[in-house]
Amino acid sequence: MTNRYDLIKIQEKLQKKLTPDRYQHTLGVMYTCAALAMCHGCNLERAMVAGLLHDCAKCIPNDKKISICEKNNIAITEAERKNPSLLHAKAGVFLAKSKYDIEDEDILDAISKVNADNIFLLPNNSNIILACEQAKDLTKDKNIYVIPTKNIPQGITAMVNFVEGITASENAETMKASLSEVKAGQVTYAVRDTSVDGKTIKAGDIMGLSDKTIETVGSDIVDTTVALLSKMLDEDSELVTIYIGQDGSMEDARQIEKEVEKIDSELEVEIQYGGQPIYYYFLSVE
After folding, report:
1. pLDDT for residue 105
2. Burial code of 84-113, b = ≥16 C-beta within 10 A, e = fewer?
3. How many whole angstroms separate alpha carbon 236 and alpha carbon 61?
């Protein structure tokens, strides 16, 4: 029997419990888990839930992590008692069961196994790349590989190019090389009046953003998204992926798909649920 989870409800709960940076990291992990699930034919929903909840106990105080474990007969090692932040995985399993109603053993097992010898950091934000490099330099007991992803579509592309059976360093090079193959776009709304690159923008306007600037501005989500995609496409483009956000809709995504096919009937268009806040759509062109 297939489990069904309310991803939006879980995200709303998590957003109240995590810091803004940790929540954005969590969304990135969710998308990465989704990409891996698609690559390996695993259950997409369960992978996304595991990604969402992997750090659900990360931001609770250390004394509360210890208390949760002690009250629920969860073993604490000497190293964990000296550094209680390590307990976030064990406490997270308990919270996933008790606060988020997760009973799926595969999901709970994934939450408990967040430690690894080889760790790939995907910043998914150009402003975080330097911090990831610094974290790498400060980490002595793990092999850290920073894949300089600047956005979620790049992060997903990097993970899709992960190959089992080759070394971590080989995978890191492959994942880095894949970043040049993807163009990323985002569709959101303006929160205030402004002027950028000669474009006059009013609060509430719909904006289509590339990695570099605001490419399109309009009043209609579908029209603005299609206009952005038309700027992203070129003669080498083969695949367009649309990730639907919390405030996007499948109906609009299907309309965007139809308009893209009018531009180039040979393009392959995929639509995925992303569930991201703020952005109606993430767009990927490869």
Report:
1. 77
2. bebbbbbbbbbbbeeebebebeebbebbee
3. 51
